Amino acid sequence: MRKISKEIKEKSKLSKEEWKEYFYGHWYFGGARQIEHEAMFPEELPKRLIKMYTFVGDTVLDPFLGSGTTIKVALNLSRNAIGYEINESFLDIVKEKLGLKQSLLQFSENIQVIRRQASVNVDEIDYLPRIKDAKPKIDPKKLNFKSDRLYRVVDIIDEQTIRLNTGLLVKFLGVKIIKREEAIEYLRDRILKKEVYLKFDNSVVVDGNTVNAYVYLKNKIFVNAYLIKTGMAEADKTKDYKYKTKFVELEKRWKNG
Ligand SMILES: C[S@@+](CC[C@H](N)C(=O)[O-])C[C@H]1O[C@@H](n2cnc3c(N)ncnc32)[C@H](O)[C@@H]1O
User: Fold this and answer.
1) 121 vs 26, 106, 118, 124, 125, CA distance in Å?
2) Whose CA is nearest to atom 12 of ligand 1?
3) pLDDT in tens, 125-156
4) Mean pLDDT of 194-198
5) What's the DSSP call for residue 172?
């Protein structure tokens, strides 16, 4: 294993906040406007990965350069970078991104563009990323955490929606609120500002920023079940989910006193 000097380790260090945020199960940050290339990702994505997995002075390889987001970030983070791009028409965009367009020098002394002899006919390569192919919805599998992460509830949006400190909106899965005022009061008194963890099931994603989930307080109180058990809500019978039978049973028990 290679030895990394103390100085390099120090320069590559993540702050406590970065460490906590980067090594959590999933990340939330804005996307990139697709103005130059149709499949650009935001700088925050390579930034985090580069800071997590490389040291200052290491070399980052991006085999699918596109508009050059990864190498731009790598260079900014004092890493070396190599990028491969099959479509030469992106070169201008890459240069623009790296700030080389404005430079009087053809290329900076630290940056080289090497054209390689194509071993295939590039014109025949059918690579055309399209925005419509992108799936901006949150992948349910990614939300199915192994380790339970705690979130803080920062807002009660309505009787069935809370906002977490990551900006994610969460609706109570399997729950149909029937006593709106009472439910809001309960959420404000007992859930707002508290730490919760989430579990997921079917139909997780409502939209790009909202998920359906089972919400648990740190002390394991199951909020969805509690809402039904106390008559503030009924079980949602319009869709299938893991705890449907349990929720219907809780609703019956409440109704039968
Ligand atoms: C999804 S885009 C990368 C976008 C990039 N992450 C950004 O932020 O701009 C993939 C890029 O890989 C290039 N590409 C596809 N096949 C390639 C290959 N065999 N060798 C090099 N580049 C390739 C495409 O031309 C396209 O620009």
Assistant:
1) 39, 27, 7, 6, 7
2) 64
3) 555 555 444 554 554 444 544 446 788 999 99
4) 92
5) E
Following CA atoms 220, 222, 223, 224 in sequence, which dihedral angle do they give, to the nearest 10 degrees?
A: 160
Q: Which two tokens stand for residue 244?
A: 């449907």
Q: Kindly report the CATH class assigned to 140-255.
A: mainly beta
Q: In the prediction, which pLDDT does 160 show?
A: 94
Q: In a mutational test of the pocket of ligand 1, which residue from 127, 130, 131, 133 has the highest number of ligand atoms less than 8 Å from its CB? A: 127
Where in the sequence of the chain do the CATH 2.40.50.90 domains occur?
Answer: 140-255
Instruction: Write out pLDDT tens, residues 17-56.
Output: 899 889 887 888 877 766 666 667 889 999 999 999 999 9
Q: Atom 25 of ligand 1 has which residue's CA nearest to it? A: 87
Closest Cα to atom 19, ligand 1: which residue?
A: 86
**Residue 193 DSSP class:** T
- For residue 249, report the distance from its CA to the centre of ligand 1, in Å: 53
Side-chain-side CA neighbours of 241 within 13 Å: the count stands at 24
Nearest residue by C-alpha to atom 20 in ligand 1 = 86
46 in contact with ligand 1, CB cutoff 6 A: no
Q: What is the distance in A from the centroid of ligand 1 to the CA of 39?
A: 8
Cα of 21 from ligand 1 centre, angstroms? 28
pLDDT in the model for residue 145:
47
Residue range 6-133 in CATH 1.20.1560.10:
no
CATH 3.40.50.150-classified regions of the chain: 6-133
Mean pLDDT of the chain: 84
* Confidence (pLDDT) at 121: 63
